[in-house]
């Protein structure tokens, strides 16, 4: 477990390591950079590097040891629905999440096809929020897969937003997070894309969370949209 600086969560719980790139949103993958750093530092979980996907049974019990209720981003260093992660392991993760109803677990994937394929074999307790990442229209079909999953709370992470999303169907979606890419080579996010998404959320009654503008100087750019901070959370929360 680790405290997180991500605005929409409290901490991270990483049960799997390693991944590979699947769409344009992965270009400057934070997990890849961090894995290389941790590998170089000799951190045991990361010694095999980013290209090898591994599961870590030793992490499964951790939520039972947290004394206070937590909001937890599950697998920030990988993708839970990567093809190399066995369904039997995902079921073990869900078993822990089902038993730890005092915590809220936020699971995010880009592998929405596997999410929907496995969905009926997973126990979707109310404390599991399931999200898909959508960086532009080319991968908007992930939203339909999420909608078809059994998750009680469904959310979209539109980050890094690298193109417009003008025709969002938010039926069955509880929460939308938007964020721009950060870092030296960050791809720009047009403010009009953000405004358009905020309006669509308002029109369709969906909670909107604006995480950051991003860019080379992320802190300086801040997270206000037209003079306002948007920190809405799902109603089901
Ligand atoms: S799916 Fe996530 S963890 Fe995997 S390469 Fe893409 S951004 Fe990185």
From TrEMBL:
**Organism whose genome encodes this protein:** Spirosoma pollinicola
Write down what this protein is called.
Answer: Phage Gp37/Gp68 family protein
What lineage does UniProt assign to this protein's organism?
A: Bacteria, Pseudomonadati, Bacteroidota, Cytophagia, Cytophagales
Q: Which domain of life is it from?
A: Bacteria
Instruction: Output the Pfam families linked to this UniProt entry.
Output: DUF5131
Task: Name the InterPro entries on file.
Answer: DUF5131
């Amino acid at each position: 477990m680790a405290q997180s600086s991500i605005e929409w969560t409290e901490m991270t719980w990483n049960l799997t390591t390693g991944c590979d790139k699947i769409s344009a949103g992965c270009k400057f993958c934070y997990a890849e950079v961090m894995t290389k750093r941790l590998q170089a530092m000799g951190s045991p979980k990361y010694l095999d590097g980013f290209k090898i996907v591994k599961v870590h049974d030793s992490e499964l019990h951790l939520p039972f040891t947290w004394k206070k209720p937590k909001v937890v981003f599950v697998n920030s260093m990988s993708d839970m629905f990567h093809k190399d992660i066995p369904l039997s392991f995902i079921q073990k993760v869900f078993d822990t999440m089902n038993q730890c109803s005092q915590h809220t677990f936020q699971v995010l994937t880009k592998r929405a096809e596997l999410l929907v394929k496995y969905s009926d074999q997973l126990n979707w307790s109310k404390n599991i929020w399931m999200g898909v990442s959508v960086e532009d229209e080319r991968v908007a079909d992930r939203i339909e897969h999420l909608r078809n999953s059994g998750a009680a709370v469904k959310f979209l992470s539109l980050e890094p937003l690298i193109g417009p999303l003008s025709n969002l169907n938010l039926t069955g979606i509880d929460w939308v997070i938007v964020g721009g890419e950060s870092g030296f080579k960050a791809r720009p996010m047009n403010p009009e894309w953000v405004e358009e998404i905020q309006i669509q959320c308002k029109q369709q009654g969906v909670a909107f969370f604006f995480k950051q503008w991003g860019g080379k100087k992320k802190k300086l750019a801040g997270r206000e949209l037209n003079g306002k901070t948007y920190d809405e959370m799902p109603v089901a929360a």
